Amino acid sequence: MKRTRAQFVTILAAVLVPALTHAGKGEEILQSQCSSCHALSKPEDTSLDRLLNRKGPDLYYAGVKFNKEWLVRWLQAPTRIRPAGVMYRKVVKAGPAGSADVVDESLLPSHMKLSAEDAAAAAEALAALGADSPLVTKGAFKGGAPNVMMASLLFNKLRGCSSCHAAKPGEPPHSGPELYTAGDRLKPDFVAEYIRDPQKFDPHIWMPKLELNDGDIQKLTGYLMTLKQEGGK
Ligand code: HEC
Ligand code: HEC
């Protein structure tokens, strides 16, 4: 079959364009496959209703939140981050008297998977989101190795983080994202800013503003950065 000039140009473009616009391809994936569930730009609607009805977490500041290497891996083989989804009240049932609530797994769909190539392109595009966002200040985490015992005491006992977040796979709290992969997944400056003021990220998010002093914020962030366990489903 003889190809027309237009077909030839299309074929040439199909070969050249992916090489030239890796990020362009990622943006297209985000728009066409992800935007139905995730906010890719700052939502104008900041009501409680929006938060309660959103289908997935906000990604408009993904570039300052996630490590890109983690994104590439997770998008190919997603594990569960929020043990009871984005809105735990919808999937948690009261357990037998005196025991913990039970997650109705049938109400939690698995996350879609991308091919290695699409995951790399989507991660590239996600890494560009929120680069100039005022939400996260560079240097919010001042670095330094934490005293793990002291920080884990803060996390588990003194500041109550463990009532909502699991620091080890298989622990019960359902209402917050697991943090046992935090060191692989999250950027330290994001963690420090989030712990300082969760409502800066969403005015209605139900993580309380715990009025922590900077010393505690630094210790907790340093501690969370040491958590790099696998084990999600
Ligand atoms: C049907 C809705 C839906 C679609 C479509 C969808 N996601 Fe998600 N996504 C979710 C939900 C729900 C979660 C929360 C999963 C969890 O916490 O375990 C999530 C979590 C994520 C996370 C982790 C976010 C965080 O704050 O922890 C990333 C990154 C992500 N999705 C990227 C994508 C990309 C990229 C696409 C498109 C290729 C996509 N998602 C398509 C619903 C969706
Ligand atoms: C009442 C429950 C609750 C308590 C207590 C709590 N959190 Fe949270 N935390 C949440 C919720 C809910 C989110 C946001 C979930 C979302 O965006 O889907 C969150 C988000 C986070 C995040 C961002 C993680 C991510 O993947 O998006 C970090 C880091 C964090 N919390 C650390 C802490 C630390 C440290 C403490 C203790 C000082 C703490 N939290 C106390 C409920 C809680």
Strand order of the largest sheet: 1-2
Could you estimate the helical fraction of the residues in percent? Answer: 40-55%
Counted up, domains total 2
The tally of helices reads 11
Beta-strand proportion: under 5%
Report the oligomer.
Answer: single chain
- Gross morphology is globular
Q: Could you walk me through the main structural features you see in this protein, from its secondary elements to its overall organization?
A:
- The protein is mainly α and 233 residues long.
- The protein has two domains: 1-78 and 113-133, Cytochrome Bc1 Complex, Chain D, domain 2 (Orthogonal Bundle), CATH 1.10.760; 136-233, Sandwich (Immunoglobulin-like), CATH 2.60.40.
- The chain has helices at 5-20, 22-34, 48-53, 62-65, 68-76, 88-91, 116-127, 148-158, 182-185, 188-196, 214-224, and strands at 92-93, 102-103.
- It has a two-stranded antiparallel sheet.
- The radius of gyration is 20 Å and the shape is globular.
- The termini are far apart.
- Bound molecules: heme C (2 copies).
- One heme C is lined by residues 57, 82, 86, 159-161, 163-165, 175-177, 191, 194-195, 205-208, 210, 220.
Write a brief caption for the model:
The chain is mainly α and 233 residues long. The protein is built from eleven helices and two strands, in the order ααααααββααααα. It has helices at residues 5-20, 22-34, 48-53, 62-65, 68-76, 88-91, 116-127, 148-158, 182-185, 188-196, 214-224; strands spanning 92-93, 102-103.
